[in-house]
Specification:
mainly alpha, 0% strand
Length: 119
């Protein structure tokens, strides 16, 4: 979280509300992967499944392309970003991945890379 977010007077989301969103997202994923034994979370999707369940529009494609080029990300990182974006969309109750979901996932990936290997 940024310093502004930590010091803001804006009301924060209560744990019970967060739990409700997480449970709803888990139910969405349960339904998404119904009939696929052993598969229950977006993180478990194969590359083929990512193509099926993590579609993004032209604007999203361009944003992801720029991030791939700028950050030097691999094909594996591409899939991971889409999986995280799908999960963010699920938490938001959105049927599709929107630009904001994708941007947030890219930001998480960038933060992860910045801190990789540091202890």
């Amino acid at each position: 979280m940024s310093h502004e977010e930590l010091t803001s007077d804006r009301p924060t989301e209560r744990s019970a509300e967060i739990r409700k969103r997480v449970m709803a997202a888990r139910e969405i994923q349960k339904q998404r992967f119904e009939g696929r034994p052993g598969l229950f979370a977006n993180a478990q999707m194969s590359s083929r499944m990512v193509r099926d369940y993590c579609q993004i529009d032209a604007t999203g494609q361009e944003i992801l392309k720029q991030a791939m080029d700028r950050l030097g990300l691999s094909a594996r990182a591409y899939d991971r970003i889409l999986k995280v974006a799908r999960t963010i969309a699920d938490l938001d109750g959105s049927p599709g991945i929107e630009v904001g979901h994708l941007s947030e996932a890219i930001n998480f990936r960038n933060l992860d890379r910045d801190n990789w290997g540091r202890r």
